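Let us work through a complete example step by step.
Step 1: write down the sequence.
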Amino acid sequence: MAGKLLEIKRKIVNVQKIGQITKAMEMVARVKFKRLMQKATQARPYFDALSHLLANHAGGTEFSHPLLVAGDPHRVAILILTSDRGMCGSFNSMLFKKIAPLLEQHEGDTIFIYCVGRKGIKQYKTRGYNVHKSMMGIWARLAFTHAEEIADDLETLWTQERLGKVYLAWNQFQSGGKSAATVVQLLPMSGPEAEADSSGFHDWYIYEPDAKSILGFLLPRYLRQVLYQSLIESTTAEEKSRMEAMNRATSETKKMAEELTLEANRVRQTAITLELADIVGGAEGLSE
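Step 2: predict the structure and record it as tokens.
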């Protein structure tokens, strides 16, 4: 009985130590989440302004650009943004589940997978997919240069392989602290949706040197900004998911410690009862 009680006490100590670790990880994730939220907020105005500009002026100008011209519809690429580390709940698994129908849709086609994050690389390499390009270790030092590097790689792949479509798959961070696994078509670019404006406001713009040159410069810039915004949203959603996962883990450790404490009390009470029974039995034997 004493041995069992000591074993339960050791379990309680171990569970409490795990709870301390998960609590610390939750606090670290919370700090990172707040910092990334600020970063995402700072990047949003430029992205919105660029989207507004293209939406209201690209539609009124006829010009061609390599990013607007699709190639072979049976040759596609998928850019997948995942985490490098685990312990972030269903952050990666929900994204993989969202991508699965797209892979089924292009079964038999040539698929180039571009993975950002260790978890995505492992997921698709072990399943025999063509991981054409990969990138790891960028989340802690995320910068716009990473979006530029990815965009350069995608543009090269787009033109050299004559791809029909390029998809972007990531966890989109939404207002209210929620995130959703999302898959969208990235190329050929269609640009942002034009806003309803019957005033002909864009006719007041004077382009120098000309509209085609300016919009031809802005399209690649817009692609890079879309990628940068997606990278920020992905890592923000990751830290939010990790924060919630560690919070749940901490709550579970507390619950387990309470249950083990109750079990220890029951064992101790049983041992005391048995000792009392032995004492009473011994006393009765002596009195006889």
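Step 3: interpret the result. Residues 211-287 form the longest helix (77 residues).
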